[in-house]
Specification:
With about 900 residues, the protein is mostly beta strands. The chain contains 5 helices and 65 strands.
Length: about 900
């Protein structure tokens, strides 16, 4: 008999002991015989007799039950319990269940069998109501709210760049952290018996080039334990003035069981850097002249709005005499939004009328003062930050929004509703040609629909499908923003995404240019037959086809009294492309003119004639009657519903349903319950097998690779890698083959090649260390020659454990293009962050795996091989069941629900 358990009840629990019990209802005779409990590979609908491979012994029992009064003494039905015998080291139930609870493998399959199956008298029957009982404590999680109090105040801050550390003006700084459990089992409950441990290091030269060594540590509380969510603080002993330090924290969990006790530790948080400098400028004062008001203890009025300028005055601290500059930013913005201003004279206050909060809700304005002197690392020193807390009113809603969710294929629907709530509604009417209508390939995932335009390759007639509103959806004479998700299938000509025409030309156009081979947002100087086109270009050329990309165009009429500083700017996947383009600088004849025609989806209109028709999919289009701030554009790019970003499965290869002895891993069908149904909607084609790879398996099909030549491949890419994405593989690592590899060997589970050089734009891999193996997810950026320009590696917290070999493990990489990190000497934030999940759990690290520059892969997408560290090959000693890729960065709960949890 097989019993299979899912991980949901055990997630976040550290298992101390485990008992498996099954109810015996019949035995062949009254004599006891040995019954084995073994862990096996997983079972599924495809499992064939004699069943999956046995992996490890869990325990055994010498019993007979279920014969009632046929025996003397009587042998009634009975629960038979299996628990580790300390005198038998081959019994591993507790350690296996512990690894299972830690997310090391997705399902726990246990088999009951007679130790000697050839002995009929050993045969037994058990009911199907087996139980797995565990004794546990809460697994500690990485602390939150880690930071240092820079002066004598109460607000802590953390800076993650050694080149731009937090300045602390006292020589006994106070650090803090909020202890956590790894998983909050019951929302709102206080759980765990926890402490916070702090560790501080100092640079040997007090510069960024020095080596780090530990100089202080402490834990709080000093005695006893606290539940999760408790904020603990510790004050260091006296530290050296001018010293460069860094610190981090971890959560410690305490347990007692069966007369023994122990401690558990979470991974450390990321490093926070600080420099002690008693002579640095102190915290300046911040006052507001409106519209924003400072939050008080019990009052925090909302005012202004995202992008609405406020007037603030920065003044030097009363203790300072030589302040020469200030810098400020909002804490919800990335650090590249930091702005600096010099004082007119030394120690003079500065008033700014152009400070614009990026988002609504509670916002914190951070301001630092500087005397423009250099610190020991040669960087300008800035004093500790002062904070101004305010509540920003809600952002202006979209004045037009089209989800296209009503365009179900085959429904005959030819209109798309404008679901915005501001202003007048503008229904979009479809003009149908072959390949125009609705598509199940949609950015919000299964059950959603997008607008399909001219996407029929079998049609050779002129394809002019588009959609349009009857009247202008946005006033192009005032500030506005337009955006849409695009899935372009043909780049042979200009492909228009959105435009709005006048009598002779379009007031704006968001489109792909076949001339420049870039995405473009433009405005025209006047409504004439031969206008001057003023363009904001994408940074990258030759964007990939058949991938989802988010485009945004912003027109900012910055002042009503003049057009000299009107600008346009293109954003791709939430990232600004170059600097804003001043329209008057390009065309002295420019004037902001108002379009008179309806908003066009998928074509341009010039003098009443349509052209530049779009080929592919459009989805989630929106317009706003204001110039959106960068943070709001990134928020739109995340495509959130109830704070959860939408994801779309755009590639899915499944070896378990592939014909054995076939030559490719086929795509998952559109209907997982009907393998004979229509093929996967994105039709990527199968993963072609190469020599040394086969579709085989003892009881179910898998992609089996020999670790020396075998792999499978398709043509990529399948995602826009300058945006957010998720990739997940279910892999079975072959320990015997891995042991034959040299130290440093990388076996690639899945990878996408870069355009040049022997590297992968993204990859999941197993790396052999000295005496251990480590799973990783990483990204690599290269220049046109293939030279590496940036890397980001997210490693597993711990090496692969014995229980993870030779069984299925879910390995997931998430790249969040909206996440930021400190990368440059000025501490500015750049691009995105890579994160690794093993099973449902994110792998914490004290280093942020940030990619400093965008990178788009091309060419081969591979499973079981690839390019890395300047080498090709990197063959995987192991097997693959599934490989899936999503547009969008999954949250931990989405990884659990869509990847780990369905395997219950």
């Amino acid at each position: 008999m097989y019993f299979e358990f899912g991980p949901e009840k055990l997630a976040g629990k550290h298992v101390l002991d485990a008992t498996f019990r099954a109810y015996e209802t019949w035995s062949f005779n009254c004599n006891p015989y040995w019954v084995d409990l073994e862990r096996t590979d997983n079972i599924s609908e495809g499992t064939k007799w004699p069943g999956p491979k046995s992996l490890d012994q869990m325990g055994d029992k010498y019993v007979s039950a279920g014969r009632g009064d046929l025996c003397s003494p009587e042998q009634p039905n009975s629960w038979i319990e299996f628990n580790d015998n300390p005198n038998e080291p081959d019994e591993n139930l507790a350690s296996t269940v512990r690894a299972f609870a830690d997310g090391k493998f997705p399902r726990l399959t246990l088999m009951l069998r007679a130790k000697d199956e050839t002995e009929p008298r050993a045969w037994k029957r058990f009911d199907n109501n087996a139980e797995l009982k565990v004794w546990y404590v809460h697994t500690p999680g990485v602390p939150t709210s880690v930071g240092a109090i820079p002066g004598t105040g109460t607000t802590a801050a953390c800076k993650t760049s050694a080149s731009d550390p937090l300045t602390v003006t006292v020589d006994t700084p106070t650090v803090q952290a909020s202890v956590q459990t790894k998983v909050e089992q019951h929302q709102g409950d206080e759980e765990g018996s926890l402490q916070a441990e702090f560790v501080m290091q100092r640079s040997s030269t007090d510069t960024t080039s020095g080596t780090w060594s530990q100089v202080w540590s402490d834990y709080k509380p000093n005695s006893g334990w606290v539940p999760d969510g408790t904020l603990e603080s510790a004050t260091t002993d006296k530290r050296a003035d001018g010293g460069l330090y860094r610190f981090h924290a971890r959560t410690q969990s305490h347990w007692n069981y069966n007369g023994t006790s122990g401690e558990l530790f979470s991974p450390y948080s990321s490093w926070c850097y600080l420099r002690i400098d008693s002579t640095a400028p102190k915290q300046p004062s911040i006052t507001s002249a409106g519209p924003y008001q400072a939050c008080l203890t019990d009052v925090c009025p909302a005012s202004g709005g995202p992008g609405v300028a406020g007037t603030f005055t920065f003044s030097p601290n009363a203790a300072d005499k030589d302040v020469k500059a200030y810098r400020w930013r909002f804490m919800t913005s990335n650090a590249s939004a930091t702005k600096t201003v010099n004082a007119a004279t030394t120690n003079a206050p500065v008033t700014r009328t152009d400070i614009k909060p990026p988002l609504s809700g509670l916002q914190t304005l951070s301001v630092e003062a500087s005397d423009l002197k250099l610190d020991k690392s040669g960087n300008v020193r800035w004093g500790p930050p002062a904070f101004f807390y305010m509540k920003v009113d809600l952002a202006q809603d979209a004045s037009g929004r089209w989800h296209f969710g009503e365009l179900k294929p085959g429904s005959g629907t030819m209109t798309a509703a404008d679901t915005a709530t501001v202003g007048t509604r503008h229904t979009a009417t479809l003009v149908g040609e072959a390949g125009t209508g609705g598509s199940t390939r949609a950015r919000r995932g299964a059950g959603d629909y997008s607008l399909r335009l001219n996407d029929d390759t079998s049609n050779t007639a002129e394809q002019t499908g588009h959609a349009a509103t009857a009247s202008p959806a946005v006033n192009t004479q005032s500030s506005f923003t337009v955006s849409a998700w695009v899935y372009l299938t043909d780049a042979s000509e200009n492909r228009m995404v959105l435009s709005e025409p006048g009598t002779n030309s379009s007031a704006f156009a968001l489109y792909y240019s076949s001339t420049y081979k870039k995405w473009v947002f433009n405005r025209t100087d006047k409504d004439t037959a031969s206008p001057v086109f003023i363009r904001s270009f994408a940074d990258a050329t030759n964007p990939p086809l058949r991938v989802w990309t988010h485009l945004t165009g912003v027109f900012a009429a910055n002042k009503d009294s003049t057009t000299s500083d009107d600008t346009i700017q293109l954003f791709v996947n939430g990232q600004p492309q170059g600097d804003p383009v001043a329209l008057a600088d390009t065309a002295a004849s420019y004037t902001p003119w108002a379009a008179t025609g309806g908003l066009q989806f998928g074509r341009s209109v010039k003098a009443g004639t349509g052209g530049e028709y779009y080929f592919g999919l459009l989805d989630e289009a929106a317009v706003w009657q204001d110039a959106r701030q960068a943070e709001l554009i990134r928020q739109e790019f995340r495509l959130e519903a109830d704070s959860v970003p939408a994801t779309e499965l755009v590639a899915h290869w499944d070896a378990t349903i592939s014909p054995p002895s076939g030559n490719q891993v086929i795509e998952s069908p559109a209907d997982p319950d009907n393998p004979a149904s229509t093929s996967f909607p994105y039709s990527r084609g199968g993963l072609a097998l190469h020599s040394g790879a086969s579709l085989a398996g003892e009881d179910a099909t898998a992609l089996v690779m020999n670790g020396t030549t075998g792999y499978a491949s398709a043509t990529g890419p399948v995602i826009d890698e300058t945006g957010s994405f998720t990739v997940s593989a279910r892999v079975r690592l072959n320990k015997a083959l891995l042991e034959t590899k040299p130290v440093g060997y990388r076996g690639l589970i899945a990878a996408q090649a870069t355009p040049a050089g022997k590297e992968s734009s993204w990859s999941l891999w197993i790396e052999k260390l000295d005496g251990a193996y480590l799973l990783n997810f990483g990204r690599t950026a290269v220049d046109s020659t293939g030279k590496v320009t940036a890397t980001a590696v997210a490693p597993a917290e711990l090496p692969v454990e014995d229980q993870q070999f030779d069984t299925w493990v879910d390995v997931t990489g998430v790249f969040d293009a909206t996440d930021t990190f400190a990368a440059a000497s000025d501490g500015s934030q750049h691009f995105g962050v890579a994160k690794l999940f093993i099973g449902p759990f994110i792998q914490a690290s004290d280093q942020v795996a940030g990619l400093a520059v965008p990178q788009q892969g091309s060419g081969a997408l591979t499973a079981g091989s690839g390019q890395a560290a300047g080498k090709t090959g990197n063959y995987l000693p192991g097997d693959l069941a599934e490989l899936r890729v999503w547009t969008g960065a999954m949250t931990p709960s989405q990884v659990n629900d869509q990847i780990a949890q369905p395997s219950t």
